[in-house]
Amino acid sequence: MHPQASKAKPCCIPSGSPRERSADTPPVGRAASAAPRPATRGMIALAGGEFLMGTDYPGSFEADGEGPVRPVVVSPFSIREHPATNDEFAAFVAATGYRTEAERIGWSFVFWKHIPAGRFSALVRDTVAAAPWWCQVPGACWHSPEGPGSDISARKTHPVVHVSWNDAQAYCGWSGERLPTEAEWEYAARGGLTQKLFPWGDELCPQGQHRCNIWQGSFPHIDTGEDGFTGTCPVDAFPANSYGLYSSIGNTWEWCQDWFGIPLPETGLVDPKGPAHGEGRVMKGGSFLCHDSYCNRYRVAARSANAPDSSSSNLGFRCAR
Length: 321
Hints:
single chain; 5 helices
């Protein structure tokens, strides 16, 4: 069993993975070099430069290592305007024959409210002791997000989920891209604003308007869906930030390139890439399950981590170059 990657207050994603990656089950698929790759579109070029990373916000989780605020320099880079979608991941699978870790291992984590009540006992194998709303569902994977009987036919422009860090790496190898570093991700998500909580400012719902897909109600039992959604939503359902990035907070967590580590150095940070080793990879952005009463990690400075072979129904990725 993988050790829990983050010792902070439990997050709205299952921390760690109760499965060991076997050396005899490598990623499966045809050679990526022989497969057609997508055209470079939806890629935003950013100038880079110095920005203030992290936060001293009193509502942050100290054990997550969000602070202190520190000056960080990132070199020019490009990043996708939105997370990888189901349509885009399907193109990758069609071109390469790739099978995700959830498919090969045989199950993934699904949020309990999204499992049909009449099929709960038939679909759920087990739950996470510290977070019983996370259910181990055999057959749950990127194209069957809630397990057997579910599909993505109505979610083509939703972010792909049930993809591990290793799966995201495989996609990037095919597309000729890479995962963003945590610093790049936060620089892009801030959209040029300095030390704001969200990509648009400090107010969650300016003028009463929802700007992201998160939980409303009483977690984990009642999601009123006041923002229009109770699960994932199209990647462009809410306005982009000033840099043109959609869905940078809420909707789904996004894998970053870095290993998770704390404490972080406070000076001399130029293109930081995190520690050389670790137990979990950094995730940023929060998801549709984040709620202020339990996990307010839908702020741009918030961070968490999970084992690189883990997957769940609220975890995806975004490519950079």
